[in-house]
TrEMBL record:
Keywords for the protein's UniProt record, in alphabetical order: Aminotransferase, Pyridoxal phosphate, Transferase
Family annotation (Gene3D superfamilies): Aspartate Aminotransferase, domain 1 (3.90.1150.10), Type I PLP-dependent aspartate aminotransferase-like (Major domain) (3.40.640.10)
GO biological process: polysaccharide biosynthetic process
Record: active site: 180 (proton acceptor)
Lineage: Bacteria, Bacillati, Actinomycetota, Actinomycetes, Micromonosporales
Pfam families per UniProt: DegT_DnrJ_EryC1
Listed CDD domains: AHBA_syn (cd00616)
Gene Ontology molecular function: pyridoxal phosphate binding; transaminase activity
Reported cofactor(s): pyridoxal 5'-phosphate
Residues the record lists as N6-(pyridoxal phosphate)lysine modifications: 180
Family assignment from sequence similarity: Belongs to the DegT/DnrJ/EryC1 family.
Name of the protein this chain belongs to: Aminotransferase DegT
């Protein structure tokens, strides 16, 4: 099979993880602190707070907003279900907004269409690494007096208006899952510019303690910690952070390679009517964490049949981005019309794109798509 994704992990990551084990610091420690600092600098943020996943990062981001039952948070349905689930974790109500057809992202207009006087926050996603228009959405959120959380799960290495995705975000949550360009196995990060917010995030991820376990162990004198609020165990390990530091050094090269592969897909697919590949938006560049293709008229084969034929020929493609409102977990929700969301989730597929995809692989995949057309 040609797999849809393979994480770029090598001997350097293995050695870094082994060094962490040998050091004795296997829980949250000095490598986590270094990874936080270097990742924040890479994405143009003031502070990084490492967590166990992007999902827990989103949860903590909403805890900061002190949301209550009855409060509404606007989210895209077209996103991994964790985006909407995080809203329910804090007792608020997710309100699904539609997205732009070309980018798969929320826009000011799609957000405004579902905004009410109960809207307290927005979670805008850089979908599949394609950045949303941060300037427009941030301004609108500020004008409305609504908090904005940026779900940057897929966005490490993408840019917006010439700056790294995440630059200038009040709060952004990141994923290091193996499907992402930069991975620590599992793990995530929350980036903020406000130092006091970072302090509280660090407390919330570690049971509400006023001093971290790492700082207690590093002290030459006994430290009697206090637990200032009910909180969580959302810590990253030093083993994960050691891998993350090596991955961070690879990030620019990985994005360059992915963009080259994506450009070749776009060129090969350009002669096939009815297939519309994802591209950079006018306001930024994508890391092509996912390379999706939208099936349009007059393409002659439905998405599911294309996936089945690719699998028969040894190509592991995937359905496009899920629509959370169509999942059983949200069967109790009746959203307004979401025609673009439903079209993208029904008619798109994700093609293999990773460091081991060759030009011959790409030609083979596109030849199958051309034959099916």
């Amino acid at each position: 099979m040609i797999p849809v994704m393979i994480p770029m992990l090598g001997e350097e990551e293995a050695q870094a993880a082994a060094d962490a084990v040998r050091s004795g610091w296997v829980a949250q420690g000095p490598r986590v602190k270094q990874f936080e600092q270097e990742f924040a600098a890479t994405v143009g943020a003031g502070h990084g707070v490492a967590v166990s996943s992007c999902t827990t990062g989103l949860h903590l981001s909403l805890v900061l907003l002190d949301l209550r039952p009855g409060d509404e948070v606007i989210v895209p349905s077209l996103s991994f279900i964790a985006t909407a689930n995080a809203v329910r974790y804090v007792g608020a109500t997710p309100i699904f907004a539609d997205v732009d057809l070309a980018t798969g992202n929320l826009t000011v207009d799609t957000i405004d269409a579902v905004r009410t006087d109960r809207t307290r926050a927005i979670i805008a996603v850089h979908q599949g690494g394609v950045p949303f228009d941060t300037a427009a959405v941030r301004k609108a959120a500020a004008d409305w007096g609504v908090a904005l959380v940026e779900d940057a799960a897929c966005a490490a290495g993408s840019t917006v208006y010439g700056q790294p995705a995440g630059t200038g975000a009040a709060i952004a949550a990141w994923s290091f899952h193996p499907r992402k360009v930069l991975t620590t196995g599992e793990g995530g990060m929350v980036t903020v510019d406000d130092a006091e917010v970072a302090v509280r995030l660090r407390r919330l991820r570690e049971h509400g303690m006023n001093v971290s376990a790492a700082d207690r162990h590093a002290s030459s004198q006994p430290v009697l910690e206090a637990y200032l609020e009910t909180a969580y165990n959302y810590r990253m390990t030093d083993i994960q952070a050691a891998v993350g530091l090596v991955q961070l050094g690879r990030l620019a090269g990985l994005v360059t390679q992915r963009r080259e592969l994506a450009a070749r897909y776009q060129e090969l697919l350009s002669g096939i009517d009815g297939l519309v590949p994802v591209r950079d938006p006018a306001h930024g560049t994508t890391n092509f964490q996912s390379f999706w293709v939208l099936i349009d008229r007059p393409y002659r084969t439905g998405r599911d049949d294309v996936l089945a034929e690719l699998a028969t020929r040894g190509v592991s493609a995937r359905r496009g981005i899920m629509a959370s409102h169509l999942e059983p977990a949200y069967a109790d929700v009746t959203p307004g019309p979401l025609p673009v969301t439903e079209r993208i989730t029904r008619d798109s597929l994700i093609l293999p794109l990773h460091h081991k995809v060759t030009e011959d692989d790409q030609q083979f995949i596109v030849d199958i798509l051309r034959e099916l057309a």
